[in-house]
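User: Hey, quick favor. My workstation is busy. Could you predict this chain's structure for me?
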Amino acid sequence: MIVSLLSVVLLLFSIACRSNSESQGVRPRQLRDVPARRLAFTFQADVQPPAGLIADETKTVIPAIQQDFDTHRQDDALLRTVRSPDGQRALALYGTADEPTQTFRIDLYSADGNFLRNVTPPNLAVVFQDAVAWSADSSFIAFVGRKSLQAEPSPTPVEQFAPILPSASPDLPAPSPTVAPAFAPLAVFNTEQVYLCNRDGYDLKPLTTRDGLIYFALAWAPDTHALVALACKESEWQARDKEFKTPAGRPRLISLDGDERLLDDALAEAPPVWSPDSSKVATAFGADIGIYDAASKAPTQARIELRERLLTASATFDEKSAPGKSKPVESPNKTGATAPSAPTSASLPVSFNPIVRLEWPAPERLYIETAYVSVRSELIKTFSRWHLLLLSPQAAVLK
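Assistant: No problem, here it is.
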């Protein structure tokens, strides 16, 4: 009888362990283990912006580096400084008198304002100040550059400007020219490519080599295993520029050895962002969100369509802003809810605008900014509103 009782107890214990194991298989412990296509979401309209939000136009300058430019480099214009995450070094972005206004160069400084070395050679023009970025571990520097458009200086007539030098004596060494910074040979391209170097400013190389594509909107993975960027053709860039629109590009995942993975064929309008665990990337297409696996051997993707929800939320927002001028409709909140009919284009809510920015501060919280953005003589951004996607695993067994 004792043996029989022990057998029953062991059998029940085995069933309990197996049930617990199966329940863990149904719901993973971390959201990083959930494929993008298995994500569920809840939409919350008009929430407070995420804490610690940095404004798009914020440009910081370290005072010690500014003082060095004011004292020793008065012919150069310091545009911005980018401090390394460990706080030990900084990049100085600066323009020169002979450099076009839309391009600049990069030098490496210590955080206390001591010049260390030039990072970019004269034949490489750097563009997009917001694309100059340190990796999270301060090991690498990434930026976007292209072949310098600076015109070659014309030779100076010797008889007019050259100083008269005494005849060289065979017993004396010939005078040597001023020593300029030495740079290793570097491949440059006619369109903007991604470049990478180490924390000391050495081993500079292009990560992308697709001449004809323009790369922009760089972002490092929090664990430094890869970068994500947008890329478009020159004709696509110029077409949006003529319409006073901000650039749009196809999201691409770029590894540190230069391998690329195209994430989507559609043109994304919002700079891509990483999840805090480096497992996923998100960007926006008008009123839709694209989420992609970035650290998986079998990557998936998901498209979250938010147009109906944003239209409904905008109608409610306009009604609260100007009561009586619009009729609010009930907003579907959860995945699978039936949305009301969308307003016609002639009656779109004033506050309804595309998604222009994403912030992903926690694995389950993806913030969305909608706004009207136009590029005229300067960037115009109005009707800014923030919304929130609460992400969770779908109720399905993950294999």
